[in-house]
Design a protein that fits this description.
- The structure is a single chain.
- This protein has a domain of 216 residues: Rossmann fold (3-Layer(aba) Sandwich), CATH 3.40.50.720.
- It is 38% helix and 15% strand.
- The protein is built from ten helices and 13 strands.
- Strand 1, helix 1 and strand 2 form a beta-alpha-beta unit.
- Helix 4 packs parallel to helix 5.
- Bound molecules: nicotinamide-adenine-dinucleotide.
- The site of nicotinamide-adenine-dinucleotide (NAD) has 29 residues, from helix 1, helix 4 and strand 5.
Length: 324
Protein backbone atom coordinates (compact mmCIF):
# COMPACT_ATOMS: atom_id res chain seq x y z
CA UNK A 1 0.00 0.00 0.00
CA UNK A 2 1.48 3.36 -0.96
CA UNK A 3 1.30 6.37 1.35
CA UNK A 4 -1.52 7.83 -0.72
CA UNK A 5 -3.86 5.27 0.85
CA UNK A 6 -2.85 5.95 4.46
CA UNK A 7 -5.64 7.53 6.50
CA UNK A 8 -5.30 9.96 9.43
CA UNK A 9 -8.05 11.13 11.76
CA UNK A 10 -10.02 13.94 10.14
CA UNK A 11 -8.82 17.46 10.94
CA UNK A 12 -5.46 16.33 12.30
CA UNK A 13 -2.83 19.04 12.56
CA UNK A 14 0.75 18.44 11.46
CA UNK A 15 3.81 20.58 12.02
CA UNK A 16 6.56 20.10 9.44
CA UNK A 17 9.77 21.82 10.49
CA UNK A 18 12.05 22.55 7.55
CA UNK A 19 8.91 22.46 5.40
CA UNK A 20 10.35 24.92 2.88
CA UNK A 21 13.18 22.51 2.12
CA UNK A 22 13.43 19.56 -0.24
CA UNK A 23 12.07 16.74 1.95
CA UNK A 24 9.82 18.89 4.12
CA UNK A 25 7.98 20.53 1.21
CA UNK A 26 7.27 17.12 -0.29
CA UNK A 27 5.82 15.89 3.02
CA UNK A 28 3.69 19.06 3.22
CA UNK A 29 2.34 18.52 -0.27
CA UNK A 30 1.38 14.89 0.51
CA UNK A 31 -0.40 15.94 3.73
CA UNK A 32 -2.34 18.78 2.08
CA UNK A 33 -3.54 16.30 -0.54
CA UNK A 34 -5.04 14.35 2.38
CA UNK A 35 -6.82 17.53 3.60
CA UNK A 36 -4.77 17.70 6.78
CA UNK A 37 -4.01 20.99 8.55
CA UNK A 38 -0.32 21.70 7.99
CA UNK A 39 2.00 24.22 9.63
CA UNK A 40 5.54 24.83 8.47
CA UNK A 41 8.23 26.19 10.77
CA UNK A 42 11.23 27.22 8.70
CA UNK A 43 13.77 30.05 8.80
CA UNK A 44 14.48 29.81 5.05
CA UNK A 45 18.22 29.43 5.68
CA UNK A 46 18.66 26.61 3.14
CA UNK A 47 15.04 26.19 2.02
CA UNK A 48 13.19 28.31 -0.52
CA UNK A 49 9.89 30.16 -0.35
CA UNK A 50 9.20 28.92 -3.92
CA UNK A 51 8.90 25.39 -2.51
CA UNK A 52 5.84 26.36 -0.47
CA UNK A 53 4.37 29.15 -2.61
CA UNK A 54 1.85 26.80 -4.23
CA UNK A 55 0.38 26.03 -0.76
CA UNK A 56 0.05 29.61 0.51
CA UNK A 57 -3.56 30.04 -0.62
CA UNK A 58 -4.69 26.78 0.97
CA UNK A 59 -6.69 27.65 4.15
CA UNK A 60 -5.31 24.52 5.83
CA UNK A 61 -1.73 25.75 5.41
CA UNK A 62 0.20 28.09 7.74
CA UNK A 63 3.78 29.28 7.33
CA UNK A 64 5.74 30.34 10.41
CA UNK A 65 9.08 31.93 9.52
CA UNK A 66 10.98 31.29 12.74
CA UNK A 67 14.06 29.45 13.95
CA UNK A 68 14.13 26.10 15.79
CA UNK A 69 16.97 27.48 17.91
CA UNK A 70 14.33 29.63 19.61
CA UNK A 71 12.37 27.58 22.17
CA UNK A 72 9.46 30.08 22.31
CA UNK A 73 8.94 29.73 18.56
CA UNK A 74 8.95 25.92 18.90
CA UNK A 75 6.44 26.15 21.77
CA UNK A 76 4.05 28.34 19.77
CA UNK A 77 4.39 26.25 16.62
CA UNK A 78 3.54 23.00 18.47
CA UNK A 79 0.38 24.32 20.21
CA UNK A 80 -2.55 22.03 19.35
CA UNK A 81 -0.41 19.94 17.01
CA UNK A 82 -1.05 16.17 16.73
CA UNK A 83 1.93 15.10 14.66
CA UNK A 84 5.38 16.56 14.06
CA UNK A 85 7.65 15.72 11.14
CA UNK A 86 10.90 17.37 12.19
CA UNK A 87 13.05 17.92 9.09
CA UNK A 88 14.73 21.25 9.89
CA UNK A 89 18.49 20.89 10.12
CA UNK A 90 21.60 21.79 8.22
CA UNK A 91 22.75 18.96 5.96
CA UNK A 92 26.09 18.31 4.21
CA UNK A 93 29.03 16.46 5.71
CA UNK A 94 31.75 18.76 4.27
CA UNK A 95 30.01 21.96 5.42
CA UNK A 96 29.71 20.53 8.95
CA UNK A 97 33.47 19.96 8.99
CA UNK A 98 33.92 23.65 8.18
CA UNK A 99 31.46 24.93 10.81
CA UNK A 100 30.94 22.43 13.63
CA UNK A 101 29.64 24.97 16.16
CA UNK A 102 26.76 26.03 13.96
CA UNK A 103 25.78 22.39 13.41
CA UNK A 104 25.69 21.84 17.13
CA UNK A 105 23.37 24.84 17.58
CA UNK A 106 20.95 24.03 14.78
CA UNK A 107 20.91 20.24 14.63
CA UNK A 108 21.32 19.37 18.30
CA UNK A 109 19.88 22.31 20.25
CA UNK A 110 17.19 22.95 17.61
CA UNK A 111 16.05 19.32 17.71
CA UNK A 112 16.09 19.27 21.51
CA UNK A 113 13.92 22.42 21.52
CA UNK A 114 11.49 20.70 19.19
CA UNK A 115 11.32 17.55 21.34
CA UNK A 116 10.84 19.61 24.50
CA UNK A 117 8.11 21.78 22.96
CA UNK A 118 6.38 18.67 21.57
CA UNK A 119 6.45 16.98 24.97
CA UNK A 120 5.06 20.06 26.75
CA UNK A 121 2.30 20.46 24.18
CA UNK A 122 1.27 16.78 24.18
CA UNK A 123 2.21 15.96 20.56
CA UNK A 124 1.08 12.39 19.76
CA UNK A 125 3.86 11.36 17.39
CA UNK A 126 7.25 12.98 16.74
CA UNK A 127 8.96 11.67 13.59
CA UNK A 128 12.41 13.18 13.04
CA UNK A 129 15.03 13.12 10.32
CA UNK A 130 18.21 11.20 11.07
CA UNK A 131 20.78 10.05 8.54
CA UNK A 132 22.68 7.05 7.24
CA UNK A 133 25.82 9.00 8.21
CA UNK A 134 25.28 7.68 11.78
CA UNK A 135 26.85 4.39 10.61
CA UNK A 136 30.17 6.26 10.45
CA UNK A 137 33.25 4.07 10.37
CA UNK A 138 31.37 0.76 10.54
CA UNK A 139 32.10 -1.16 7.33
CA UNK A 140 29.35 -3.75 7.85
CA UNK A 141 26.78 -4.10 5.08
CA UNK A 142 23.85 -3.90 5.01
CA UNK A 143 23.50 -1.23 7.67
CA UNK A 144 21.44 -2.37 10.66
CA UNK A 145 20.08 0.00 13.29
CA UNK A 146 21.94 -1.69 16.16
CA UNK A 147 25.35 -1.52 14.43
CA UNK A 148 26.35 2.14 14.34
CA UNK A 149 30.00 3.10 14.15
CA UNK A 150 31.93 6.18 15.24
CA UNK A 151 30.81 9.41 13.60
CA UNK A 152 33.11 10.67 10.82
CA UNK A 153 31.81 14.26 10.81
CA UNK A 154 30.13 16.82 13.07
CA UNK A 155 26.95 16.33 10.99
CA UNK A 156 26.89 12.58 11.75
CA UNK A 157 27.53 13.29 15.42
CA UNK A 158 24.57 15.69 15.57
CA UNK A 159 22.32 13.00 14.13
CA UNK A 160 23.63 10.37 16.58
CA UNK A 161 22.93 12.82 19.41
CA UNK A 162 19.38 13.45 18.12
CA UNK A 163 18.83 9.71 18.24
CA UNK A 164 19.95 9.45 21.83
CA UNK A 165 17.62 12.27 22.84
CA UNK A 166 14.84 10.60 20.87
CA UNK A 167 15.23 7.41 22.92
CA UNK A 168 15.49 9.36 26.16
CA UNK A 169 12.40 11.47 25.51
CA UNK A 170 10.36 8.30 25.02
CA UNK A 171 11.80 6.66 28.11
CA UNK A 172 11.68 9.63 30.50
CA UNK A 173 8.66 11.56 29.24
CA UNK A 174 6.67 9.16 27.06
CA UNK A 175 7.03 11.32 23.91
CA UNK A 176 6.50 8.96 20.97
CA UNK A 177 9.62 9.63 18.91
CA UNK A 178 10.58 7.82 15.71
CA UNK A 179 14.08 8.45 14.36
CA UNK A 180 14.21 7.97 10.60
CA UNK A 181 17.65 7.42 9.11
CA UNK A 182 17.32 8.56 5.53
CA UNK A 183 19.71 7.10 2.97
CA UNK A 184 20.76 9.64 0.26
CA UNK A 185 17.40 11.01 -0.73
CA UNK A 186 16.78 12.41 -4.23
CA UNK A 187 13.86 13.67 -6.29
CA UNK A 188 11.78 16.73 -7.18
CA UNK A 189 12.69 20.06 -5.55
CA UNK A 190 16.11 18.94 -4.28
CA UNK A 191 18.39 21.95 -4.60
CA UNK A 192 20.97 21.46 -7.39
CA UNK A 193 22.82 24.70 -6.58
CA UNK A 194 25.79 25.59 -4.41
CA UNK A 195 28.99 23.98 -3.25
CA UNK A 196 27.16 21.62 -0.91
CA UNK A 197 24.49 20.32 -3.30
CA UNK A 198 23.79 16.58 -3.37
CA UNK A 199 25.32 14.65 -6.27
CA UNK A 200 22.23 13.62 -8.21
CA UNK A 201 20.68 17.08 -8.76
CA UNK A 202 24.15 18.56 -9.20
CA UNK A 203 25.10 16.08 -11.95
CA UNK A 204 21.76 16.52 -13.71
CA UNK A 205 22.04 20.30 -13.72
CA UNK A 206 25.67 20.33 -14.82
CA UNK A 207 25.01 17.87 -17.64
CA UNK A 208 21.95 19.80 -18.80
CA UNK A 209 24.13 22.95 -18.86
CA UNK A 210 26.87 21.21 -20.85
CA UNK A 211 29.31 21.31 -17.91
CA UNK A 212 31.74 18.57 -16.87
CA UNK A 213 30.85 17.16 -13.42
CA UNK A 214 33.41 16.17 -10.82
CA UNK A 215 33.21 12.83 -9.02
CA UNK A 216 35.00 12.87 -5.67
CA UNK A 217 37.08 9.70 -5.34
CA UNK A 218 37.12 6.84 -7.85
CA UNK A 219 33.35 6.61 -8.34
CA UNK A 220 33.28 3.13 -6.79
CA UNK A 221 31.70 4.38 -3.57
CA UNK A 222 28.16 3.05 -3.23
CA UNK A 223 24.96 4.44 -1.80
CA UNK A 224 21.39 3.34 -1.20
CA UNK A 225 19.91 6.23 -3.18
CA UNK A 226 16.31 6.66 -2.03
CA UNK A 227 13.51 8.34 -3.96
CA UNK A 228 11.64 11.09 -2.12
CA UNK A 229 8.29 9.29 -2.14
CA UNK A 230 9.77 6.48 -0.03
CA UNK A 231 10.79 9.09 2.56
CA UNK A 232 7.30 10.62 2.57
CA UNK A 233 5.99 7.13 3.19
CA UNK A 234 8.42 6.57 6.09
CA UNK A 235 7.26 9.78 7.77
CA UNK A 236 3.55 9.10 7.35
CA UNK A 237 3.94 5.51 8.56
CA UNK A 238 5.84 6.72 11.65
CA UNK A 239 2.99 9.13 12.46
CA UNK A 240 0.59 6.18 12.38
CA UNK A 241 2.87 3.72 14.18
CA UNK A 242 2.17 2.06 17.53
CA UNK A 243 3.48 3.52 20.77
CA UNK A 244 5.51 0.32 21.24
CA UNK A 245 7.50 1.15 18.12
CA UNK A 246 8.51 4.58 19.53
CA UNK A 247 11.89 5.51 21.01
CA UNK A 248 13.59 3.64 18.19
CA UNK A 249 15.57 4.26 15.03
CA UNK A 250 14.47 3.11 11.59
CA UNK A 251 16.39 2.90 8.34
CA UNK A 252 14.48 4.61 5.56
CA UNK A 253 16.17 3.53 2.36
CA UNK A 254 15.23 1.74 -0.83
CA UNK A 255 17.24 -1.33 0.21
CA UNK A 256 19.49 -1.23 -2.90
CA UNK A 257 23.07 -0.15 -3.58
CA UNK A 258 24.37 1.83 -6.55
CA UNK A 259 27.94 2.76 -7.42
CA UNK A 260 28.31 6.47 -8.02
CA UNK A 261 29.97 5.97 -11.39
CA UNK A 262 26.99 3.86 -12.55
CA UNK A 263 24.57 6.53 -11.36
CA UNK A 264 26.55 9.06 -13.35
CA UNK A 265 26.29 6.92 -16.50
CA UNK A 266 22.57 6.29 -15.92
CA UNK A 267 22.00 10.04 -15.79
CA UNK A 268 24.09 10.60 -18.94
CA UNK A 269 22.11 7.88 -20.78
CA UNK A 270 18.76 9.31 -19.69
CA UNK A 271 19.80 12.79 -20.84
CA UNK A 272 21.29 11.45 -24.06
CA UNK A 273 24.70 13.05 -23.39
CA UNK A 274 28.09 11.69 -22.61
CA UNK A 275 30.70 13.77 -20.90
CA UNK A 276 33.74 12.16 -19.28
CA UNK A 277 33.66 13.16 -15.57
CA UNK A 278 36.60 14.71 -13.74
CA UNK A 279 37.78 12.58 -10.80
CA UNK A 280 38.60 14.72 -7.75
CA UNK A 281 40.00 13.91 -4.31
CA UNK A 282 38.04 11.78 -1.85
CA UNK A 283 36.13 13.96 0.60
CA UNK A 284 36.89 13.86 4.33
CA UNK A 285 34.03 12.50 6.42
CA UNK A 286 32.44 10.49 3.60
CA UNK A 287 31.55 6.84 4.13
CA UNK A 288 32.59 4.38 1.44
CA UNK A 289 29.56 2.14 1.10
CA UNK A 290 25.99 2.30 2.22
CA UNK A 291 23.01 0.01 1.90
CA UNK A 292 20.01 -0.05 4.24
CA UNK A 293 18.56 -3.11 5.88
CA UNK A 294 14.94 -1.96 6.01
CA UNK A 295 13.50 -4.99 7.77
CA UNK A 296 12.98 -3.18 11.09
CA UNK A 297 11.01 -0.35 9.45
CA UNK A 298 9.01 -2.94 7.51
CA UNK A 299 8.17 -4.93 10.64
CA UNK A 300 7.45 -2.07 13.07
CA UNK A 301 6.18 0.73 10.83
CA UNK A 302 4.78 -1.22 7.88
CA UNK A 303 7.22 0.69 5.64
CA UNK A 304 7.20 -0.78 2.14
CA UNK A 305 9.05 1.49 -0.32
CA UNK A 306 7.26 1.75 -3.64
CA UNK A 307 10.18 3.12 -5.71
CA UNK A 308 13.48 1.44 -6.45
CA UNK A 309 16.41 3.50 -7.72
CA UNK A 310 15.63 3.01 -11.44
CA UNK A 311 11.98 4.09 -11.10
CA UNK A 312 12.95 7.06 -8.93
CA UNK A 313 15.80 8.36 -11.08
CA UNK A 314 13.62 8.32 -14.20
CA UNK A 315 11.01 10.48 -12.42
CA UNK A 316 13.64 12.80 -10.97
CA UNK A 317 15.33 13.41 -14.32
CA UNK A 318 11.98 14.13 -15.95
CA UNK A 319 11.19 16.67 -13.22
CA UNK A 320 14.53 18.48 -13.62
CA UNK A 321 14.13 18.59 -17.39
CA UNK A 322 10.80 20.41 -16.91
CA UNK A 323 11.81 22.62 -14.00
CA UNK A 324 15.44 23.71 -14.35
N1 LIG B 1 18.56 14.96 1.53
C1 LIG B 1 19.13 13.86 2.02
O1 LIG B 1 19.66 13.03 1.28
C2 LIG B 1 19.11 13.58 3.49
C3 LIG B 1 19.72 12.40 3.95
C4 LIG B 1 19.72 12.12 5.30
C5 LIG B 1 19.11 13.00 6.18
N2 LIG B 1 18.54 14.15 5.72
C6 LIG B 1 17.90 15.04 6.70
O2 LIG B 1 16.59 15.36 6.24
C7 LIG B 1 16.23 16.67 6.69
C8 LIG B 1 15.76 17.50 5.51
O3 LIG B 1 16.83 17.61 4.57
P1 LIG B 1 16.66 18.27 3.14
O4 LIG B 1 17.49 17.49 2.22
O5 LIG B 1 15.23 18.48 2.83
O6 LIG B 1 17.41 19.66 3.38
P2 LIG B 1 16.95 21.15 3.02
O7 LIG B 1 18.13 22.01 3.30
O8 LIG B 1 16.34 21.19 1.68
O9 LIG B 1 15.82 21.41 4.10
C9 LIG B 1 16.08 21.78 5.44
C10 LIG B 1 15.12 22.89 5.80
O10 LIG B 1 15.31 23.24 7.18
C11 LIG B 1 15.31 24.67 7.28
N3 LIG B 1 16.11 25.06 8.44
C12 LIG B 1 17.46 24.90 8.58
N4 LIG B 1 17.84 25.41 9.76
C13 LIG B 1 16.73 25.87 10.38
C14 LIG B 1 16.49 26.52 11.63
N5 LIG B 1 17.48 26.80 12.47
N6 LIG B 1 15.22 26.86 11.94
C15 LIG B 1 14.19 26.60 11.09
N7 LIG B 1 14.38 26.00 9.89
C16 LIG B 1 15.62 25.65 9.55
C17 LIG B 1 15.91 25.16 5.98
O11 LIG B 1 15.59 26.50 5.67
C18 LIG B 1 15.32 24.15 4.98
O12 LIG B 1 14.09 24.61 4.46
C19 LIG B 1 17.45 17.21 7.41
O13 LIG B 1 17.30 16.96 8.80
C20 LIG B 1 18.60 16.38 6.87
O14 LIG B 1 19.68 16.29 7.76
C21 LIG B 1 18.53 14.45 4.40
Amino acid sequence: MSYEQLVFPENSTFLVTGGAGFIGSNIVEALLKKDMNVRVLDNLSTGHIENIKPFMDNPRFTFIQEDIRDLDSCMKATENVDFVCHEAAWGSVPRSIEMPLLYEEINIRGTLNMMEASRQNGVKRFAYACSSSVYGDSTKLPKRESEEGNALSPYALTKQTNERYGRLYKKLYGLNTYGLSYFNVFGRRQDPNGAYAAVIPKFIKQLLNGERPTINGDGRQSRDFTYIDNVIEGNLRACLASEDAAGEMYNIGAGGREYLIDVYHDICDALGVFVEPVFGPTRAGDIRDSNADISKARANLGYDPSYDFKAGIALAIEWYKQNL
